[in-house]
Amino acid sequence: MGQKYAYLDADRIVIGFYADDIHGDNIPAGAVPITDEIWQMLLNGQSAGKRISVDENGGAVLLDQLPPTAEQIAAMNGAERNTRMSEAAGLIGALQDAVEFGTATKTQAGLLDAWRKYRAALLAVDLTANPAQWPEKPDAP
């Protein structure tokens, strides 16, 4: 096995690994040489959800992930709400058709009301909360 290298960004976070037996002379300037053991430890830590950095002495370290920013939380919650709204819209449409065509059972008519209330409650969810407090989903028809 050839020499391994860790390539760092401006914040000293490892953003790539290189090996001279694979990359030859194409290893970026500033890449830090590391042992095979350190390389394997870093990969294992990254697989376990850690981020890889280098300490002030140049030693490789594993760090916990940074908490999501307010913008990331709002984006994740917004995507979740959109998914839930799409599911609700599909079920509401089908239940509404059954009601309008007179083929809905009493249970289905009650579910239509429950799903419409659920959809309205989704609009009231605070997307900046972490975790967001989602309303309870009604039964499926």
List keywords for this structure.
alpha+beta, 5 strands
Enumerate the strands of the largest sheet in spatial order, edge to edge or round the barrel.
2-1-3
Q: Write down the overall mean pLDDT.
A: 92
Tell me the overall shape.
elongated
- N- to C-terminal distance: 60 Å
Alpha plus pi helix count: 4
Strand content: 15-25%
H/E series: EEHEHEEHH
Given helix and strand content, the structural type is: alpha+beta
Beta strand count: 5
Radius of gyration: 26 Å
Main beta-sheet annotation: 3 strands, antiparallel
Please tell me the total number of domains.
Answer: 2
Helix content: 40-55%
Spans where pLDDT lies below 50 across 5 or more residues:
none
Task: Please give a structural write-up.
The protein is of the alpha+beta class. It folds into 2 domains: 4-63, no CATH class; 70-123. The chain has 4 helices and 5 strands, in the order ββαβαββαα. It has helices at 20-23, 36-47, 70-100, 106-123, and strands at residues 4-8, 14-19, 32-34, 51-54, 60-63. A 3-stranded antiparallel β-sheet has the order 2-1-3. A two-stranded antiparallel ribbon has the order 4-5. Helix 3 (70-100) packs antiparallel against helix 4 (106-123). The longest helix is centred in the middle third of the chain and has 31 residues, at 70-100. The radius of gyration is 26 Å and the shape is elongated.
